[in-house]
Amino acid sequence: MDEQLYVKQILSGNTSVFSYFVETYQEMAITIAYRICGNQQDAEDVVQESFVKAYRNLHGFRADSKFSTWFYRIVYNTAVTLTKSKMWTGYNETDIENASHLSGNSVDSNIEDIEQKEMVGDILQKMPKGDALLLTLYYLEDNPVKEIAKITGLNETNVKVKMFRARKLFKEMLIRYYGQTVEDQFLVSF
Amino acid sequence: MAEKKNIEKEDEIIRQMMQSTKIQAPENLKYRIMQQIETEKALMPQRMKRATPHGDVLADFRSIFGTMYVLLFVLSLLTIIFGGKEAILSPQYILTALLIVITLSSFWALTRLDAFLRNRKKTK
What confidence tens digit (pLDDT) does each residue in A57-88 have? Predict the structure, then answer.
């Protein structure tokens, strides 16, 4: 069903319809919040506050934009405000180099022994928050660069540059942290 | 071509890896949110307003330019009745018609500017 119709129903007073939006977007919202806050409890608080903000400001939602983009922007702003996070602090090569210290006890780890979820989650936790967020928005929900730019408030060129660096850092950290096996098994293409 | 394929393959691998990182929302979160929203609604019903009418471009367009054409029609009719067909080409008639067109067009432009500024203020 059309989300615009749901929005109209909520604006006309049928609050229960809002549960559709909660159901549909809560998981991605909590994932975004978690990337910024770094812990589950704060992420839940951010998501709750964001939904309430979205409800209060629903009359300001424009029909020509996607609800998800509009809502994720609220989640992003709420999380950044709550944690007073610096999302885009520079890292460049130093972070990639810093990743190498993590490899000490894991170089020989076999990928079969490591839960992939834990491994990727671990890498994302160690990456700069902004980079982890970009990867999440791009790969988890297939958001186009244009939508990511709207959510994060960056311009499209900036998003592309940061995405390129984030991908590079992710790959570097994955290899350095979990060893050659990862490169062989997962990332044969680069 | 091969490089593009590699990037696509690489993207697919990262995408697959990322799928496992989606965080599950706790079961009671939806309940908590809906309860807060219901409370919000009960406490401040005035906040829930329908979309404001000043955003309707077509309605503004129809009413302002509709008035303009009605005025021009009346002006033309009166000019023909009192001055004959030749009066339509007189500078007096042309200037008056021009004044009506400029005034109402400016009014429409100001209305749109006002709606735009209000919307921007609201979305901030």
Answer: 998 888 778 899 999 999 999 999 988 766 66
Q: Which domain holds residue A134?
A: 92-185
User: Do B62 and B38 lie in a common domain?
Assistant: no
ipTM comes to: 0.76
Residues contacting residue A73 through CB under 8 Å, at least 6 positions apart: A150, A151, A153
How many structural domains does chain A have?
A: 2
CATH number of the domain to which A170 belongs: 1.10.10.10
Asked if the Cβ–Cβ distance from B30 to A60 is below 8 Å, we say no
A139 touches chain B (CB under 8 A): yes
> How many CB contacts within 8 angstroms connect chain A with chain B?
107
For residue A189, give the nearest of B10, B19, B30 by CB distance: B10
Domain finish residue from A24, A58, A83: A83
